[in-house]
Structures are given as C-alpha cells and as structure tokens.
Design a protein that fits this description.
The chain is α/β, with parallel strands linked by helices. It has 14 helices and twelve strands.
C-alpha cells in the first residue's frame, strides 16, 4: 500500500501528562478505528461522549469523539479525533489499540499537514506559516506566521499567477493569429499593460519587506571586547538572569555563550564571547578565535571597553557599537549623559554609535536596550504588514519579477514567442511558490521540521 493510502494516527496536542489529550486519525481506515474503539461513528462535526474500548484488551477511557468525513476535514481525508484524559497510561493504551488495527500506522513529522497540502487544503506558503506558528517564540514571530497561515501571500500569488496566465494567453493568441494583420498588436497592448501592473505590485512587495524573512531566525548580537571588561555581566543584565559566569579574573569565558531574548517582540540571540587578547594559552586562543568568528558573522557587534579608548578590534561587516562600561568607576562618569544623548539615535551613524553604561548597577542600560529595539525595527523592516517569511519565497518572487521585466523589455524586439516564454517562466516561479509545480525536492525539507501530529 502506498504511504499516502495508509491511515495515520498521532498525538495532536501537547506532551503528557495533560488534563485532555487529542489523538487524531486520518485516512481511509479512520472510520474503522472509530467504529472498533468507540462503538460507532458519531454525526459529522458533533462531539459525542463514548467509552473507548480495545476489542482485545478491554476498556481504555471515557472520552469525547468527533468525526470529520472527507473532504470537509483538516487533511481532506476522513478524520477521527479522540479527546481522552491525558495520562501516559491512557495514551499508551489508545496507541496500542490503534496500532493493532490493520492499515493504521503512526504518523511521521508533518504528515498531517503534508496531506492537507497534497489534498489542496492549503498551499505551501500556508504550510510554512503553520510550521512557523508552531515554532514562534515571540509575538512578532507569531503575527508574521499567522499572516502566512491566513494565506495573505498565497492569495496574492494565486491572483498574480492567474493574471500572468491570462496575459500569456493573449500573447499566444496573437501568435496563433499572426496572419490576421493588426490582431497581434491589439492583443499585445492589453497583455503588456497587465504585465507592467503585476511587475510593479511584486516589486513593491519585495522592496517593502526589509529582512522580514530573518524574523524567523532572529537578530544576532555579539558582545565582544578585551578580557574582564564586563561582557558577561552585560549578558546577564540583558537576559535578566545569570547565564554567564562573572569573575574578576581575566579569561573566565573560554567559549561562546548564547541566550535567546525577546526584545519588544523581536527575537534576538545575544552572544557572549571570550575576551579578545594575545595569549599563549591554547584553550584561550581557541576561545579568542571563536569570538572573532562569531563577531564577524553577527548582525550587530557591541564592542565593550571600560575606558575612553574605543577603537574596535574585531573585523565585522555588521555595525559595531562602542559600549563604555563601568562609568561609575571611570573618568567617563562625567561624560555619561553626553554619550547617552549621542546614542539616542544610533541609526544616524551605525558604525560609530557610543553608549556609556554600568553593567553592574544598570546605569545606561535602558538607553542601550531602546537602541537595540530601534535597530531591530530597522533591520527587520515593515514586518507588521510583511508578506515574505522565508528566503525561498523571496527568491521565487525575485525570479518572477525578473521574468516579467524580461518580457516587457523584449516585447518590442524579441518577438511574441520569447515574451510568451518569459511569462511561462514567471507563472512557473509563482507555481513553485505555492507548491503546485516542481517542488517535490523541497517538500521533505519543509515538512520534516514539523511536530509529529501536525
């Protein structure tokens, strides 16, 4: 039996123990499972109480069952749901009973959603949105994923693809009637008008997104600097808990320490690195090497110093902000207010922003955190209305826009055949975006990251 013809089951709620757990069954034998375990099939989409019993092992639980016949179900197949008490023993007995039914097997990660996709219940952008919603850690990630799941990008892509196909049909009709004198010109003009409008819409979406697809992974901020300047203390202050060892002895941090933060809904990974200095200790040398490497890969570097010398000692393509620490102990205490005023608008000079703080006492941290939030807002762009959530989506939209542009540029000199070919390429890219053509190679990669039961 082909895997898609098999009936699958899995836990569709959180890990046990829970007050209530949901076990979902999808496929052609879902009705058999419901009949054998619940004694019959309830009316569609109506919750009914049932005493679940294994024909071989006896009673399982007093439960609520629901029946969703195809195609009006989440997967487009017959779906049975068992709402049981969420103890491990209850779930174990139910899974054992389901496993003994011929034609049923445990689901693979993402298999329910993949079946929904294959049965036309959602497109690939919506499936990606569901995956992102499951893994969202911050409110902004949740809102962006929800826009994907609601089909905002998919709806636009479907409309764009339909209009491209219509424009292509006009041009190909002109090719078919090329011996009719002025017919090709009459068809080419409205087709080009549609193409121009479409190219403008897609270009606007691409231009307005900033780095919205990076919201899934988050902003990476590296704290770097010489040894014993307070990097770990600053890390603990930003995390609001002790995640790094703080010691008066230089070289305490030997490896890279990471912590995930939620800054005003933006996901931020803060990295505490080893102190950068010349050393003969091979372990510390490796720590310095890793510190330089992570700083070079970060989206923003906070170069921490404890005096007025602020020259960065790391090579990074990202902006480097100089953070003067221990202002309560240094000559900078009298300049702290001026430095914080200069840092109020770090976007004005991203490569040379200065901050004065006391990581121990918390002085100046509010200004630094506010600047980090402003940097994140600028970095991620207008994600509140953003449609692009993944690099795959951005790449395919760029391919679509490029094909449309080629078709417009070639309309006057390349001939209708090449214009029609460029339009077919544009429609093909949007089809791949939606998951309707040539995407088999990306499906396994996308769905394997899902939870079992989704």
């Amino acid at each position: 039996m082909h895997p898609r013809e098999q009936t699958i089951f899995a836990l569709a709620s959180g890990r046990p123990p829970n007050a209530i757990s949901i076990v979902r069954v999808s496929g052609p034998h879902a009705n058999v499972a419901m009949t054998l375990l619940a004694g019959g099939i309830p009316p569609p989409r109506m919750a009914r109480r049932a005493r679940l019993s294994d024909p071989n092992q006896g009673p399982i639980d007093d439960a609520i069952v629901l029946w969703f016949p195809a195609p009006a179900s989440a997967t487009g197949e017959d779906v049975a749901e068992f709402h049981v008490h969420g103890g491990r023993a209850v779930l174990g007995a139910l899974f054992a009973a389901l496993s003994r039914i011929e034609g049923l097997r445990p689901a693979e990660p993402g298999e329910f959603t993949r079946r929904a996709f294959e049965n036309g219940k959602l497109d690939l952008t919506e499936a990606e949105g569901l995956d992102d919603l499951i893994h969202a850690d911050t409110d902004r990630q949740r809102r962006q994923a929800l826009r994907q799941l609601q089909g905002l990008l998919g709806d636009k892509a479907r409309r764009w693809r339909e209009q491209i196909i219509e424009a292509s049909a006009l041009i190909e009709a002109g090719i078919d009637f090329s011996d009719e004198g002025d017919v090709p010109d009459q068809l080419m003009a409205p087709a080009l008008a549609r193409i121009k409008t479409l190219h403008h819409e897609i270009a606007e979406v691409l231009a307005a997104q900033g780095r919205s697809e990076r919201l899934r992974d988050g902003l990476v901020v590296a704290i770097a600097g010489p040894p014993n300047v307070g990097k770990s203390t600053l890390m603990n202050q930003l995390a609001r808990r002790e995640v790094a060892i703080v010691s008066p002895h230089a070289g305490t941090t030997r490896d890279v320490i990471e912590v995930q933060l939620d800054l005003d809904g933006y996901p931020v990974t803060v990295i505490d690195t080893a102190g950068i200095r010349e050393t003969d200790d091979p372990v510390e040398q490796e720590g310095v090497r890793r510190a330089r490497a992570r700083a070079a890969e970060a989206d923003l570097v906070l170069w921490l110093v404890e005096d007025d010398r602020c020259g960065p000692r790391v090579e990074a393509a990202a902006p480097v902000w100089t953070v003067h620490n221990k202002i309560d102990l240094s000559a900078l205490s009298g300049r702290a207010k001026t430095l914080r005023i200069d840092a109020a608008n770090p976007g004005r000079n991203r490569g040379g922003a200065h901050f004065a703080i006391s990581a121990t006492k918390g002085d100046g941290l509010a200004e630094l955190i506010a600047a980090l939030v402003a940097f994140a807002q600028d970095f991620f762009g207008s994600n509140e209305s953003g449609l692009i959530a993944r690099e795959r989506q951005r790449t395919l939209l760029r391919e679509t826009a490029a094909a449309l542009l080629r078709s417009m540029e070639g309309a006057g000199r390349a001939g209708e055949e090449l214009v029609a070919e460029d339009l077919r390429a544009a429609a093909h890219s949007l089809g791949r975006l939606l998951g309707r053509v040539d995407v088999e190679e990306v499906l396994d990669k996308i769905f394997r990251d899902f939870c079992i039961g989704k």
